[in-house]
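Much of what follows relies on a compact textual record of a protein's fold. The record below shows the convention in full:
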Amino acid sequence: MIRVNTGNPVDMIGRYSLLSGQSGWDDKSVVSASHRFGAKKMYGSDLPRKEIRVRELMIFFFVGLSAVNVAAQTPLQKVSISMSSTGMPSIQLYIAREKNFFREEGFEPQLIRMSANAAIAAGVAGELDALGSVGSAVRAIMRGVPLRVVAVDLRRPIFWLVSRTEFRTAKELKGKILGIATINGSQHSAARKMLAIHGVDSDKELTFVQVGDEAAQLQALVSNSIQVAGLTPPYVFLARDKFKMNVLESSIDKFPSIQQGIGVQVKSVQDQPDWLKGLLRVKAKAARFFHENEKETAEILARVWKSDLATATEWYRRCKPAFTLTGIPTDEEVKDFLGEEAQVLKLTESVSPSRIFDFSLQRAVNRELGIKG
């Protein structure tokens, strides 16, 4: 059964302007600039060598200062990226923002929280530069929407099935309400599969209702508007630790899933490869940082989640295996995921991975950065 709670699907969580980085200039740029201003000619004058040296240094200083000012005034290109959750799936966007990886590539990020369906519509209309929730984008592409997935963060789902305290088993949830963000989205699909593991057909034996993002779903669980939901960190441990709810199942080791990454219009892949490579470099740097820096990543999570460091570290370690090293899932993972999605969508013909994914630019970026996996 379906019950839809409509509302504003888009919630701007901020246009994040990064702190100014250091705009530097190297010796080569100074020497080249000084030649253009004629500093070299001074050696042929009758001025004392000491005075010549002082004048050279003054020219170097003012040319260098000018270079710094020009660099500082170079406008960053705004890039809008959707995310359907502020939880663990979006961690690499937070890392990229905090570690100035966006700025390094000339971008000012606008991270916009919106439902996956709203993001797909905005992406197709050209009102959004990139989609972060690529699981739902894959399903849309399989139905003919002109988008491409060019990078994948998560190769496994990181949802946990959470129920109110009075429901200790999945079978007790029959006849109750399942909260979701998007109908047939990644979260809905994961919750459906986790319930099926326990012999519960959620499409027939539960009512599902769209109640917004995971923060809204946790509030709905607390108020008893819904009785079960599939949650990611931090919402799963808030439900468990603060509200004493039950964690009935994990999805991370049960079935494949492709969610979170970068999805763009087909024409962006074809017409703007340099721009897209810049964005993929941002994500690749963030992914490498995530895998190689446990302590700093956990500290970022703790700040974003307003949790203690031990809890952030625990859930970082639990979720880390679900993330790709290179932004590219294996052929087998793609095949398994597309096969399951085709069944859900009741497609009569299989869809070629090449119609959905294009990892050519991601592979090029990985070679540039020396990323192997």
About this structure: The CA atoms of residues 284 and 327 lie 7 Å apart. Residues 77-156+257-369 form a domain with the D-Maltodextrin-Binding Protein; domain 2 fold (CATH 3.40.190.10). The first strand starts at residue 2 and ends at 4.
